[in-house]
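yo

u said u wanted the structure for the complex thing, so here. seqs first:
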Amino acid sequence: MDKIISTFGELYASCKRHNKQIWEAAQEREAEQAEISVEDFRNIVKKSLDAMKEAIKNGLESHEMSISGMCGDDCYRLQARYVQSHSLLGTTFEKITTYALATIEENLRMGKIVACPTAGSCAIVPSVLVGVSEELNISETEQLNALITAGEVGRIISNKVALAGAVAGCQAECGVASAMSAAALTQLRGGSIEEILNAVALAMKNLLGLTCDPVCGLVEIPCVKRNPFLAIHAVTASELALAGICSKIPLDEVIDALEQTGKLMSPMLKESSQAGLAKTKTAIEMEKTFLK
Amino acid sequence: MRQSSIIDIISPVMVGPSSSHTAGAVRLGLLAKNVYNATPKKVTIKLYNSYAQTGKGHGTDKGVLAGLLGLAVDDTRIKDIFELDISKQFEYKFEYIEDFNRHPNAVDFIFEGEHNMTISGDSIGAGEVVIRKINDFTVKFTGKYNTLLLVYKDVPNMIAKVTNSIHINIASLHCDRFAKGEEASMCVCLDGEIDNKVIDFLSLIENVYMIRYIKKLES
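structre next:
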């Protein structure tokens, strides 16, 4: 196997050359680099998958508020609504949105979650992966394959762009998480390598420029609600890609645009809470109340 | 180009809410604890800039203290650490400082006890951390590798003596000194594990003042 894969072009060529799926090539390379067996590597991935499921379970059961008191009871509200009346888009949609709120709220009450790729974007991959797998009765083996695929996508992006709001804005946190989820979902549904990479490109392209302007500097507003939004965003990207719809801009060039956009983005909109939502009249009032 | 691992992307399993402000804080505490390598009498923790401003809401103070007490990033006791008995092992004090010459998420640990030591580090995003300074030496290690840390007298052949005794691959090597012939530091990041015997052997090398073997943090 190829030891170094730094771009999606290289990933595609390598998978084709060795006739391997993305997760297959990735797990072999990761195991070799870490000097462990493929089975051991998959067990590490399973630890993350199990923790994701546990966070969903805990989050669904709690409506404890965060330290600031600003957020923590939205998942409770959404569940209550779905008991009363089902979502227009069906039970898969219900699961993804509730699981996303469950996870991100578990995060803000200092519960245990998986940073994937970051804590502020921790609910996007699990909600799509676990929600869809439950609905379609997908095996754990395939869930692990999908999570490895998502991880490989995030890893390649991180070679070019640091996955941190302070460096490149929320496009590099929730944006990348949505692109990773699109990859995981397309893998889960048996998509080809081309379809997986197109799903990533489509999801990513549509989130370029997303800023990080958290109110009071906390991972709460707008992060909490952004997670379910961008989980569903990933489903849209996957659906389009599975229909054979291609990104006219190749994925590596989309990532170049992500990097450039991150560099051009004002530092005031990169996790410093100096502009955007963080400096609205209401947010300034909240600062006085919560950041005493 | 430096190659990262998938595991960095889909981990750590951690208590929230922020990889940089909570998990990063725990990791900085853990690394500082391992460098100090004793139970202190008192630790003053200086949180800078964003760590000072938004640290309370992110549990940065709880995270740092939990790390100093040896708790891992996924330990659910972090949330209530101030109330727990284990947090009574030593005296601690937080200071909140604005200094834009420092990293947005910088922290200083000032240890007082059988020996005094100041350790500084930054949380650089996505849960990754770097220890940058020990007393007045610049160092550079992240907890991603098993790391050998030495303070010694700056004399010829020290690097050769150390590296000759280690029979595993060195991922990175960083040295610094006060001045020629004065105190110096060496930070060796390793791809594998070294035996305690090797550490004992290294500590016997003439002119080595201090040696620490800091195991990599669980991801």
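The longest strand of chain B covers residues 117-125. Chain B touches chain A through 42 residues (CB under 8 Å).
cya
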